[in-house]
Amino acid sequence: MEPPPFTPLKQFDVQSINLNEVPGDGYDFLKHVIVERLHCPETVVTDKDFSQYDTNQTIWCDQFLEKFPHSDNDRRLVPSEIWQQGASLSQQDKNILHRFISTPPLISIVIRLTERSVYRALEYLITEFIDSGYEYERAHWMFALMCCIGVPLQHSTCAALRELARSCRKLRRTCECADCEIARACSVFICLSARYFGQLDLADSLVS
After folding, report:
1. pLDDT tens digit sequence for 154-204
2. Number of Cβ atoms within 10 Å of the Cβ of 33
3. What Rg do the C-alpha atoms of the chain give, in angstroms?
4. 186 φ/ψ angles, rounded to the nearest 5 degrees
5. Separation of CA 184 from chain center
6. pTM of the predicted model, to two decimals?
7. Which of 135, 136, 147, 138 is nearest to 110 (CA)?
């Protein structure tokens, strides 16, 4: 079920809204905003001729590539080792996480995890899920960690959840019935990723 709007607004005739008039109250203001949005094109393209600025161009792409070869350029763009270590789980962290997975995700354990640890652990477990398939203990921990994060999501976590939803959809197709453990778990992860975390394009269609 979709969450209710923050401010309930009854249906109204958009033709009755005069944008030249000052809104009488907050509801009128919202109606003005809605009508103005309807008149805004989804895509705006300019027909301006930018060739007049060619003389201001100091260096062209081919000249840039000649001056900075790919090999040298790539080395300059590679993140530092410290950055890479901070952005991923260390082997020690992975070993600790695997020991944790052997026990249920009790509140007493999960509550002690830092926000950074929650995000990194969840992304790692999702990768393991996609690569290795369903495992009850892993899925149990994934659900617990998903309950600990809020929105807006970090970019990497959002991407991981989207991959999780796609992977769950593929895995669910291999199930013999919708009531088996794997199918139910996949449906839960799809629902959480799509509806709770706002990735609605990956949501299951609602059956009336």
Report:
1. 888 999 999 999 999 999 999 888 889 999 999 999 999 998 998 988 888
2. 11
3. 25
4. -60, -40
5. 22
6. 0.55
7. 147
Please state whether 198 falls in left (phi above 0), alpha (psi between -120 and 50) or beta: left
> Among 135, 146, 148, which Cα is nearest to 190's?
146
Half-sphere exposure of 191 (CA within 13 A, CB side): 11
Residue 149, amino acid = I
Cα 55 from Cα 18, distance rounded (Å): 47
Q: What is the DSSP string of 135-156?
A: -HHHHHHHHHHHTT--SSPPHH
CATH (residue range 77-202): 1.20.58.1070
Distance CA 179, CA 189 (A): 15
For residue 67, the Cα-to-chain-centroid distance in whole angstroms is: 38
Domain coordinates of the chain in residue numbers? 77-202
